[in-house]
Structures are given as C-alpha cells and as structure tokens.
C-alpha cells in the first residue's frame, strides 16, 4: 500500500473514531452521569497513555530551542483547545442530538478563517466568503428545523457546541507556530496533560464527588472514549497529516458529520428530517469547497 493510500486509510479511521465520541457521551448520559464526571473519566483514563508516550520519546531532542515562554503558550493552548473545547462540547450534548453537534462543530474551519482575519489581518478571499456563507446557510437550515422539533433548549446546546468550535479553532490558529517546536507527539501529549490538570482542578472546585457511585457502563464508556475516541484517533490523524498534508486531510474531515449521524442512527435511534439532511449536505459542501480551494491556492 502506497504512503498516500495509507494516509487516506489512517485519516478515515481517525475521523470515524473521533466522531464516535458524541455517541458515547449520549449513551453515558442515559445513566444520569454528570458532565464534569464524564469528562474527568475520559481524560484520566487517557492520561497514563500520554505519559507513557512522553516517556518513550523523552530522548528525542527538539529541533529548535524551547524557552519558558513556549511552555506558557503551550499551557494556554492546552487549556483552550482541549479543556474548554471539550467541556463546552460535553455540556452542549446534554441538549442536542449527536448528529447536530457534529454538524455545528464541523464549521470550525470557517471560524479559523475569521480568526485569522481578525488576529493576523489576513484578507478573506471571495472563495472563502462564499464557502462561509454556504456553510452557515446549511447550519441555519439544520438548526432551524431542530428548533421546530425540540424547542428552545436546543438554542443553549447549539450555543455551547458553537463555543466549543470557536475555542478549538482558536487553538488551531494559535498553536500552529508552536507545534513544530515541540513536535506533534510531544505537543499533543503535553496539551492533553494540561487539559487533564485543568479538569481535575475544575472538579476539585465544582465537582459533586459522586464519581465512584455510577454503574459500570459509565466507566466503560469513559474508557472507550479515552482509547477509541481520543488516544488512537489523535495519532491516526497525526499519521494521516504527515502523509497527506493538512489541506488534503481537511477534506477527509467531511466524513465526520456523516459518520456521527450514521452511528447515532444505529446506537441512539436518532433520526434526521429531510431538511436536516439537506442542511448537513450544504455544510459538508461548504467546508469541502473551502478546503479544496485552499489546497489549490497552496499548490499555486
């Protein structure tokens, strides 16, 4: 198998496994688990693996000099990109379906474009502007139809998941210059450890201390999220990006909403209306169009 084919395979598997997280969260919520407890389980169960990986790569030296300020930025990006983004996402899933959650999260590339313009004053091209309009039209169609079905609670859930997308996009925009300094593996491990520390502190301050009183499926879902929706896909995606490049991999990301919707249909019996399916397809088209045009510009 060629390197490109292997990259596509890794990318597809990574996207599908990442998209399974929302379904596992919804399944765990059937046992009335607290949001912070579930997030704590996910991060604590994955923590030993990231620490072990850091131990394995401890002798690999960085290509550039790392100073104290770099570690401060790393802590900030771990706080924003993994802790805040995950917390908002888990909270939002209390109120909306897994399929809708993935569609809203999927707009993060358009938020990256906005933030790049806002922070770095990088001009938004006509192609980007059209792609953004298409994408948000799709979200509006999907979201509006959901309001007709479930009422105003979906507004809160949708807003929380949108905050998750914004914080994750902020992480992508801000950490791009830092990742090459540490390397993908070391940076990912450090960021996940920072996130776990933040969640533990949050729990010490605001937790209900009921984490030992849940039925065993809750812990099973927490462990499954840690391994199959966090650890394994994080390295599959890194391997895919290494072989395909970030722009090529971003096109594979369009499988995320489709995968979540199919998994939610099978395991949660979630159904989408015709208008929601239309909205989903519009969102996928808008983001894929943005990714493809970005790739063309990058290739000159």
TrEMBL record:
InterPro entries: AA-Vitamin_Transporters, EamA_dom, EmrE-like. GO terms for cellular component: plasma membrane. Keywords: Cell membrane, Membrane, Transmembrane, Transmembrane helix. Residues 6-143, 156-291 form the EamA domain. It is found in: Cell membrane. It is a multi-pass membrane protein. The chain crosses the membrane at residues 38-58, 70-91, 103-120, 127-144, 156-180, 187-206, 218-237, 249-268, 274-292. SUPFAM superfamilies: Multidrug resistance efflux transporter EmrE. Signal peptide: none annotated. This is EamA domain-containing protein.
């Amino acid at each position: 198998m060629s390197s490109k084919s292997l990259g596509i395979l890794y990318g597809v598997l990574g996207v599908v496994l990442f998209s399974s997280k929302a379904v596992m969260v919804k399944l765990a919520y059937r046992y009335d688990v607290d949001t912070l407890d579930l997030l704590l389980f996910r991060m604590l169960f994955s923590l030993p693996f990231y620490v072990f990986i850091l131990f394995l790569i401890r002798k690999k030296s960085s290509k550039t000099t790392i100073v104290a300020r770099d570690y401060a930025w790393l802590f900030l990006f771990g706080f924003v990109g993994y802790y805040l983004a995950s917390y908002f996402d888990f909270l939002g899933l209390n109120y909306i379906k897994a399929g809708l959650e993935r569609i809203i999260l999927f707009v993060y590339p358009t938020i990256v474009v906005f933030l790049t313009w806002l922070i770095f004053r990088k001009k938004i091209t006509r192609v980007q502007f059209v792609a953004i309009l298409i994408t948000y039209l799709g979200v509006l169609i999907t979201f509006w139809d959901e309001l007709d079905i479930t009422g105003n609670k979906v507004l809160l859930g949708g807003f929380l998941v949108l905050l998750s997308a914004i914080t994750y996009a902020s992480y992508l925009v801000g950490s791009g210059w830092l990742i090459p300094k540490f390397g993908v593996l070391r940076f990912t491990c450090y960021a996940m450890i920072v996130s776990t520390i933040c969640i533990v502190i949050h729990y010490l301050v605001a937790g209900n201390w009921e984490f030992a009183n849940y039925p065993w499926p809750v812990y099973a879902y927490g462990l499954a999220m840690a391994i199959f929706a966090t650890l394994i896909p994080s390295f599959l995606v890194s391997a895919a990006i290494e072989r395909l490049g970030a722009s090529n991999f971003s096109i594979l990301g369009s499988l995320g909403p489709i995968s979540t919707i199919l998994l939610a249909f099978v395991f949660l019996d979630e159904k989408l209306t015709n208008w929601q399916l239309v909205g989903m397809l519009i969102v996928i088209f808008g983001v894929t169009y943005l990714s493809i045009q970005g790739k063309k510009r990058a290739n000159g």
